[in-house]
Amino acid sequence: MALNQKNQPIDNPSLESYLNLQYPVTLYPDAEGGYVAQIKDLPGCLSQGETLEEAVSNINEARELWIETAYEAGDTIPLPSHEDSTNTSLLLQLPKSLHRRLVEAAGKENASINQYIVSLLSQSGLG
Fold first, then answer.
1. Is 102 left (phi over 0), alpha (psi -120 to 50) or beta?
2. pLDDT tens for the chain, residues 1 to 127
3. Distances, alpha carbon 5 to alpha carbons 73, 79, 83, 112, in Å
4. How far, in Å, CA of 32 to CA of 39, rounded?
5. Is 121 left (phi over 0), alpha (psi -120 to 50) or beta?
6. Which uninterrupted H or E stretch holds 69?
7. Is the pTM for the entire model greater than 0.85?
8. Which CATH code is given to the segment(s) 8-82?
9. How far lies 53's CA from each of 7, 29, 35, 57, 83, in Å?
10. What is the CA radius of gyration of the chain?
């Protein structure tokens, strides 16, 4: 039986409630090309892709499989960590070629690079 912080019994959340949780995702370029995506709150939940979009799609699939496997095994599923919600900035180190492609794509959309990246992330299901 699961207990809350006051050691009172709580109902076990459904699989669907775990699948609907929003976990922070870390994305970084892979030295051999493409991108790596990781959910640090879910140990071993790691994926990769040739493009940012593919890496995000793959990590979302990996997150679902991780949670489903842990749920079926009766393992503890960690809740998402929440960093200081007042910090809304993000510092990224991008390869020059990717930065150039993002600037060009943002220009075609008449958007800043920040707006364009936020748009890409929103379309991926992370936003």
1. alpha
2. 454 555 544 567 899 999 999 888 888 888 888 889 999 999 999 999 998 889 999 999 999 999 999 999 999 999 998 755 555 566 677 888 888 898 898 888 887 777 788 778 877 776 5
3. 23, 14, 20, 44
4. 20
5. alpha
6. helix 52-73
7. no
8. 3.30.160.250
9. 42, 13, 9, 6, 24
10. 17
Beta bridge partners of 27: 37
User: Is the Cα torsion angle 87, 44, 57, 66 positive or negative in sign?
Assistant: negative
CA distance 66 to 70: 6
Q: Give phi and psi for 31, each to the nearest 5.
A: -60, -25
Coil, helix or strand at residue 112 = coil
- Helix, strand or coil for residue 47? strand
Start-to-end Cα distance in the chain: 34
